[in-house]
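Q: Make up one entry.
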Amino acid sequence: MSRTIKEIYNEAVRERNRRLELTEFASDSKLSVMNGILWVAAALIHSFETLLDVFAIDISEAINSRINGTPNYYAHALLQYQQGDELIVREDGLAFGYAHVDETKRIITQVSYVESTDDSNLDSKLILKIATGTKGHLEAIPVSELVPVNAYIGKLKFAGTRIEVISTKGDVLVPRLTVFYDGAVPEAEMYDAVEERIRGYITGIDFDAAVYVSRLTDAIREAEHVTDVYIDEGAVPEQGVFIACHDADGQIQPLQRVGRMTYTASGYLKESSRKDEESELPTFREAITLRIENHEI
C-alpha cells in the first residue's frame, strides 16, 4: 500500500537530519528551499507508489480470472457453447474458440456442478448439470444434443480430468398442503392465488439451489386471504412437500418427502404435466387442500 505524502516527507526529513553533511540545510520552515524540494519529491514518490498499487491490483485480478481447469472454468465454457458451430484453434494457438460469436446459438442457460467420488476411482469426477430456458421455465437439453455438448467439453478439458455433462427433466414438485383462508373470495380464485405463489417460488430459486419446505410455505402464506399453511399428519394421502426426480434414462422415480430441505437431481423444479410418466402425479391445484378458517382448535 502506498505511503502518504506526509509519511514520505517526514521519512526524508529524518534521513536528512541523520546526515552530518546536511545539517546546515536543517530548517523547520515549510517554505525553505530544501523542504520545498523534499515535499515535491515526496509527492512524486507517492504518485509512483500509487501507480504500483494499481498495477498490483490489475495483476491480482488477472491471476484470479485465470480459472483454467477449475469447475468454474468448465461451467463458464458450457455457457459459451454454440449449437451447430465447430470449435477452432485460436490464432494465438493457446485455446479453442468460435470463429464468430452468435448469442442465438447458445442453448445452455443454466449450469451447476458437483464433484463426485467413488471407491473404485481415487480421482473425483466433475458432474456438470445443464438446462435450457429461463428461470421458472427450464427444460432439459435433448439427449441428441448432449452428444455434441460432451464432445465440445472433451476438447476443452485438461488431460486426466473426468467430466460428465448431464441434463435431466425437472424434478416434479408436489406440495400436498392444507391451506386455510378467510373465505372472502371464491375457492377457484384462491386456488389461482396459491398456484401463482408456488410458481413464483419456483421462479425465484437459483439453478441447483436448495429447496426449503419453510420457504415454500412462507411463499404460499404471503398470498392474500391466506391465514395459515398446515401439514396435516393424519391426512390421506400423506401430506408434506414431495419431489419426484427423473433418472438418467428419463424415468420418473417415486415421490420422496422433503424433511427440512433438499437438493434437486436436475437442478430445477417444475409442476406435473399429467402426461406420460407424470400422469399419476398431481398438479399444484390437485395437491393443495383448501379450508376456510373457522378458528377452531
Q: What stands out?
A: The chain is about 35% helix and 25% strand.
